[in-house]
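Researcher: I've got a protein sequence and the SMILES for flavin-adenine dinucleotide. Could you write out the 3D structure of the bound complex as structure tokens? I'd like something to compare against our soaking experiments later this week.
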Amino acid sequence: MEPRSEAELAEAVAGAAGPLRVVGGGTRPIGAPVAGDPLPVAGLAGVSLYEPGALTLVAAAGTPLAEVEQTLAVEGQRLGFEPMDHRPLLGRAGVPTIGGVAAANVSGPRRIQAGACRDSLLGVRFVDGRGAVLKNGGRVMKNVTGYDLVKLMAGAFGTLGVLTEVAFKVQAIPETEATLVATGLDAGEAVDRLSAALGSPYDITGAAHLGPGCGAPEARTVVRIEGLADSVRYRAGALKSALGGDWQVIGDEASAALWREVRDVAPFAAGDAPVWRVSVKPSDGPVLVAVLEQAGLAKRAILDWGGGLVWVEVDDDPGDGGAAAIRDELARLGGHATLVRGSDALRARVPVFQPEPAPLAAISAGLRAKFDPRGILNPGLMGRC
Amino acid sequence: MEMPIPDPAVVARKARLVERLAAVLPADAVIHDDAETRAYECDALTAYRCPPLVVVLPASTREVSEVLRICHDEGVPVVPRGSGTSLAGGALPTADCVLLGVARMTGVLEVDYPNRFVRVQAGRTNLSVSGAVEEEDFFYAPDPSSQLACAIAGNVAMNSGGAHCLKYGVTTNNLLGVTMVLMDGTVVELGGAHLDAGGLDLLGVVCGSEGQLGVVTEATLRILRKPEGARPVLMGFDSNEVAGACVADIIRAGILPVAIEFMDRPCIRACEAFAGAGYPDCEALLIVEVQGSDAEIDAQLARIMAIARTHDPVELRESESEEESARIWLGRKSAFGAMGQINDYMCLDGTIPVSSLPFVLKRIGEMSAEYGLDVANVFHAGDGNMHPLILFDANRPGDLETCEAFGAEILKLCVEVGGCLTGEHGVGIEKRDLMLHQYAGADLEAQMAVKDVFDPDWLLNPAKVFPLSVSDTRRTGRRTGRQTAA
Ligand SMILES: Cc1cc2nc3c(=O)[nH]c(=O)nc-3n(C[C@H](O)[C@H](O)[C@H](O)COP(=O)(O)OP(=O)(O)OC[C@H]3O[C@@H](n4cnc5c(N)ncnc54)[C@H](O)[C@@H]3O)c2cc1C
Ligand SMILES: Cc1cc2nc3c(=O)[nH]c(=O)nc-3n(C[C@H](O)[C@H](O)[C@H](O)COP(=O)(O)OP(=O)(O)OC[C@H]3O[C@@H](n4cnc5c(N)ncnc54)[C@H](O)[C@@H]3O)c2cc1C
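Model: Sure. Here is the predicted complex with flavin-adenine dinucleotide in place.
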């Protein structure tokens, strides 16, 4: 079964006798393992509309992300949300698809300024669990016509419908970028500095802290600025004096390479220790890391989004990959944690996504029952339902 | 406008309902006197009015929860209301409803500069959210023109935007979390002071759901540091087409202004006559504003003006002072007032792909001749959100109907060229019956399925958003007939 069109895909879903495992490029095996027949969407490919003057692009869901990025680059444009490539972290080959990016709501460091994938996603077409072809949103920047199911589909990991087409808002690639780098700060100090940078008027597009052993022996705290060359020079200087302390400025390729490293959580690549992705209030990032370090759980941590996105590599020792410790702490702090890397056995054993309070769990289950009444789309991937 | 016939059984239970509500709310928070409920009979779409059965003005999440539990119990529809500035009839009551106003919930609950968020009660006005963080030079970005009056509750429900959303996005892009009460009284938290949702993005679907999924009582909003400065440039062109091409070229050049506003000749004339902003007499006017330090602004404006020059502008005026900036914006900001002086008008709100701008303006001109009603256009050109203002005479019989028919044609045109029926005002009752032009029945079914999950009895703000014909079966049992709202 390899659908080549939306109609074929709809037919495949409608005619499916059992569970389906929706496969884009096979690069992001996030979630509880799914037992089911693979339903590949790679056969639905191609950019169908691109208007550089309107900053919009529409593509079939199976279009390789690289093809989308190349098409945009020809016009000096890009996806503003800087989608992460999960391949290094998860040790996967394969071709990431634009549908997979949307389904997993994959965003990178620029999320703090440009928003998440879901904020750039303007419209979707999808096939629900009955095989009905549906659409929501459109291809214009502002649209409040009816409910915003676009947001609901982004990050649903294919559990509410199989995306067949996505429309994105894109942005211009700026003339240049520069990054301020400080070394040796502890996580708490680093997040203070990052907060100061993000609270400045200098339009920061990246603010991260790589702990010791994350690509360099010493910790690195990094702040990115993008724009017209003169403007970047001015803001980098102004920011440097506003922040105080010892900052080095790197530009162009060195800066770009550094942010690819942060984006892809590259320092944790090629390992198999469990990796969690935790979303918290920025000032709570260092608190969480300290608690896990004290418990002897955290091996290494990278804080992105000014401290609000914590990537933590833990020891598998307690048998739950640190799930209990992390979630206990989050019960106090607020926020949520997702187990992004873990063996199939571990991902089958502990809830990969943050367990929801009962009323929200009931709503999520209710929505799944409406969109996928037979429970055949990536069943169980986001938790029992 | 067709509205469901009020449920006589509910109306008959008014006394008991009032008694139960009064038991959980302070005496002055339950309004049931006919003279007083009349104050809530409409929102800013004043053509349609209907006083609610009862009005309640709770002051806390707990009180909202108790009110909803009672209404759920009694099977009474509830219409949430912020400040009543909706232009789509989103907060229009029904004669058998409890209108739940959040106007007494205006507190600031938490301001956190290091983490860049503010948590407020939902009745707080948009502008006063910025006011609460101004001392540290922060602001809340979405800035609907109604920002002095409209409440965050309404902004969340309508996913409101403003002139600066080209750069900063609309409400959904700046909303981190809400406290919301479900129709059965259950209090839930969606999102929080952190970015991104865990699990399904329920916050994303609640934002823009027009008060039909739950009553929002608190909101956690992202705040941003103010830019160092801002400066506009005024450009005049002798055709809409050329002005449209100039907009596309600016965007394509990789410069992201914070605002690109477009006015056509009828609008320019009216605004000039009203405000005396010193606008040139031309076919199309653009106001382009950029932000940053002085040097950055100079650099950006130099590029923008160079692009504009390639399009032979009849006027190109960079602001030289704060005072001149204010004057450039004055005309644009008084557009609605200016049109109101000339005539009654109906303000539409559709979005089109920017590339279709010249074609759509030309078609609107042709239709204007066919319908015999003048139209002035003012809109956010950067994102294609148009506000055609159709002029009519409310005292002339038939004019309103002609105006409505013409408006519907324009909105259908927006959809035909790849756009949508509403970019920021919402569907409400106003565009309810046009929904089938943008969405197939199955698409609307999918949206209504979401309401089924949040509000299985369809008690929250019913008869809005979806054409009555498609929502009928879900509302029957409770609602059997229809009537026309006066
Ligand atoms: C027993 C087992 C065997 C497996 N064998 C393989 C294998 O042989 N090959 C392989 O590639 N993977 C395999 N996986 C991993 C599995 O395919 C992933 O869990 C996931 O279903 C595939 O998505 P993806 O890797 O293509 O990710 P992406 O394409 O990056 O997609 C990310 C997420 O989005 C969903 N998704 C992708 N495209 C769409 C779309 N258009 N609409 C809606 N949702 C979408 C995916 O289901 C996934 O949840 C296996 C998993 C298990 C448990
Ligand atoms: C002069 C003028 C200019 C305007 N300019 C703009 C503009 O530039 N951009 C723009 O987007 N809009 C604009 N609007 C429209 C309007 O101001 C916005 O839609 C605003 O968000 C409505 O807020 P409100 O508090 O007045 O809501 P209301 O009118 O009271 O209600 C609007 C909707 O929100 C729902 N609601 C209210 N409170 C709650 C709650 N607590 N929980 C759940 N649902 C609730 C209501 O049921 C209704 O559906 C303008 C209106 C006017 C009159």
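Model: Chain A has 14 helices and 17 strands. The mean pLDDT of chain A is 95.
Researcher: Great, I'll pass this along to the crystallography team.
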